[in-house]
């Protein structure tokens, strides 16, 4: 009867050093057409390296493939791409950090992948989840640590809920109170009826995810009674997450280089944000154009309008840094752009994180980026690009641009017309859905203030030692 039990490893015959030498001698006497690689066996050396750790000592690694829009359905030039999502995912899709709601859950296939047909609810579900996951992963890689959602802590690890089809309206937003991201759909005006799903826009999903991420790092920046530049930084951060997330994907960078011939100031899908939404509104360059030349003196205090100054400044810094690095013979242009974008995003994210907790200004973040340049290994060239671009946009004093030394003082330029409204609040009339939510409007604080003022007011029933005045009369 055949014995199917495996032999103990100690009983498995192992070649001796003498056998190995004889085998090598026989092999060397053979005529070979190709040089053979020398075999290295553990028995050839007395000081052999320790054996590999047994299976199971390394944590298992999980990943799933998914299909997403590279930008949105109208950007046909780059279309749809397959991406790899690192992590353990369950039906939904769902991870420990993100959970999809409001739609039929999508189950992984036999290969543990989430592949759905474009144009379907299932595709929208996977696409939306994937972009939020990738935006969070990019920020965590850059900072080197996990980022908790704003409500996490003290044992609370509640994931953010994502609603790809939250209802019909021309909107999308992040809500701290509801602990969610909601993306809506609407019928585009015009002779040909068409439904625009905001969740299908790479830029819109990344932008709203950016609000959620920044709210964790700087929770006071969403308050409507803060300086308008603070709210504008929130809007700009969402746009920058969309830009740098696209630049973290090699095929998008390759397409960008080909489309622009290496000139980032040529018209490109990278600088045009939310193209399909913009076309539905009759615009030819999306909802926003990151490649702009707006200066502080040319914009209003409306937060969205103001944010374009900062977004445009960072885009110009990216273009300048790319020109500084390209053509050095080390990498292809696409590889250079990816490397440069990672460096610039690291400067941006670290500067946002280290800026003041309340009433942060553009100059605060610019100063932080300039100070971080030596730390990132990018000295005078990058620092000069940052200072020059934001001096040109009237964010910092032009004299600051002349200093390239670490720690040089950078003074901001005051613009009297860029303050809050007469009621003490920011003008958010042109912002995305997030900044227009009531929960960030300071209404609750105003209500509490009125209640407190009422307690110190005149009239009403006065308290006595035996109760209220009315009770004493009885």
Automatic annotation (TrEMBL):
CDD domains: M4_like
Biased composition regions of type Polar residues, renumbered to the chain: 23-34
Domain of life per record: Bacteria
Stretch list, region Disordered: 23-61
Name of protein: Peptidase M4 domain-containing protein
């Amino acid at each position: 009867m055949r014995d199917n039990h495996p032999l103990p490893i100690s009983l498995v015959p192992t070649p001796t050093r003498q056998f190995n030498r004889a085998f090598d001698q026989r092999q060397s006497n053979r005529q070979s057409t190709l040089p053979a690689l020398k075999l290295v066996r553990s028995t050839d050396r007395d000081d052999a390296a320790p054996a590999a750790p047994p299976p199971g000592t390394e944590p298992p690694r999980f990943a799933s493939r998914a299909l997403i829009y590279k930008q949105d359905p109208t950007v046909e030039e780059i279309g749809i791409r397959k991406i790899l999502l690192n992590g353990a995912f369950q039906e939904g899709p769902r991870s420990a950090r993100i959970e999809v709601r409001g739609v039929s859950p999508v189950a992984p296939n036999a290969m543990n992948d989430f592949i759905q047909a474009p144009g379907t609810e299932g595709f929208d579900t996977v696409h939306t989840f994937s972009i939020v996951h990738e935006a969070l992963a990019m920020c965590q890689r850059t900072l080197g640590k996990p980022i908790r959602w704003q409500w996490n802590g003290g044992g609370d690890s509640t994931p953010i809920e994502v609603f790809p089809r939250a209802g019909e309206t021309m909107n999308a937003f992040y809500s701290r109170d509801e602990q969610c991201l909601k993306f809506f759909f609407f019928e585009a005006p015009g002779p040909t009826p068409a439904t625009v799903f905001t969740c299908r826009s790479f830029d819109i999903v990344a932008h709203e995810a950016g609000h959620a991420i920044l709210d964790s790092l700087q929770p006071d920046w969403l308050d409507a009674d803060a300086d308008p530049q603070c709210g504008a930084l929130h809007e700009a951060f969402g746009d920058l997450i969309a830009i740098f997330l696209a630049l973290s994907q090699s095929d998008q960078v390759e397409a960008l280089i080909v489309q622009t011939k290496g000139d980032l100031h040529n018209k490109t899908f990278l600088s045009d944000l939310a193209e399909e939404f913009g076309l539905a509104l009759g615009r030819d360059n999306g909802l926003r154009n990151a490649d702009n030349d707006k200066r502080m003196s040319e914009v209003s205090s409306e937060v969205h309008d103001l944010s374009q100054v900062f977004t445009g400044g960072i885009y110009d810094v990216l273009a300048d840094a790319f020109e500084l690095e390209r053509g050095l013979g080390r990498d292809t242009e696409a590889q250079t752009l990816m490397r440069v974008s990672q460096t610039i995003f690291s400067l941006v994210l670290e500067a946002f994180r280290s800026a003041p907790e309340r009433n942060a200004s553009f100059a605060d973040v610019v100063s932080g980026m300039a100070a971080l340049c030596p730390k990132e290994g990018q000295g005078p060239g990058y620092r000069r690009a940052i200072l020059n671009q934001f001096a040109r946009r009237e964010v910092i004093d032009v004299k600051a641009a002349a200093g390239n030394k670490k720690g040089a003082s950078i003074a901001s330029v005051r613009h009297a017309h860029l303050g809050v409204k007469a009621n003490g609040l920011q003008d958010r009339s042109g912002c995305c859905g997030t900044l227009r939510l009531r929960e960030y409007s300071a209404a609750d604080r105003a209500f509490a203030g009125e209640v407190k003022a009422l307690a110190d007011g005149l009239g009403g029933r006065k308290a006595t030692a035996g109760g209220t005045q009315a009770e004493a009369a009885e």
